[in-house]
Amino acid sequence: MSGPAQAGTRRASLLIIGGGEDREHDMQILERFVALCGGPDKRIVVLTAASRVPAKMWTIYDAAFGGMNVGSRKPVHVASRLEANDAAMAAEVAMADGIFLTGGDQKRLLAQAGGTRLDEALHAALARGACIAGTSAGASAMSAHMLADGKADLHPEKGAVSLGAGLGFLPRVVIDQHFSQRHRLARLLTVVAQNPYLLGVGIDEDTALLIEAGGSIEILGAGAVTVVDGRHMVSNVADIRNRAVPEMVDVRLHLLPSGSRYGAAGDSATPAAFSDFLNIVTNIA
């Protein structure tokens, strides 16, 4: 297996965290984020737009990144779309080496930032090789189709979950977080039942899916990533009433525990049934 990115490497990457990452002890995921940014001497901004308590959120990550000797770290607090269209702020984000999207409410993040100069700056930073990380709500916001609201407790239920427009770094993917801890498989199956074109990705707490330009993925942290693929599915979801349980035949499920790595030279051979998923998720933009 090839090792983690070293300080100084600059490959565009997404670090998608299921929430609850360790911020005080070994901080494996956050340390990997700093390495992907190019090391502690690089510029990191923390975007708190998803949170209703941005100052408190910044205090947490200021301490964590400070403990890793990141000297150039700065919060970006956005409380309105007017602020998200500030040219100077957007320029600073566009030139950052790493951008960290905090938790909170993904709908709040998109309502304030979607389609603004800040949104454009995030894409510009990724295009020039930055690492963008997001945890919890920040993770869900990364895909083009964002899981916005709703729940399904025991079984998938037609109409129980709604989607919204996300930041668009990943096409054809919908991301759920706190996955195993909050028993969200039924919720993700609900999304896939109604949108078989989309791949469902569920990420456990203190766990991250790392997607790197060049076509590789890696799972790190304490848990696992669950992938639900309904593209070969046969279902009656179009014909049943709202809140009924759909029939879902031939749904594929992949479980990737921490340490799984595919796509890079010298890593595990990619199974044929998984190669299409790899091609889709590594098409970051």
Automatic annotation (TrEMBL):
It holds the Pfam family Peptidase_S51. Keywords: Carboxypeptidase, Hydrolase, Protease, Serine protease. It is an enzyme of class 3 (hydrolase). PANTHER family: CYANOPHYCINASE (PTHR36175:SF1). Belongs to the peptidase S51 family. Exopeptidase that catalyzes the hydrolytic cleavage of multi-L-arginyl-poly-L-aspartic acid (cyanophycin; a water-insoluble reserve polymer) into aspartate-arginine dipeptides. This is Cyanophycinase. The lineage of its organism: Bacteria, Pseudomonadati, Pseudomonadota, Betaproteobacteria, Burkholderiales.
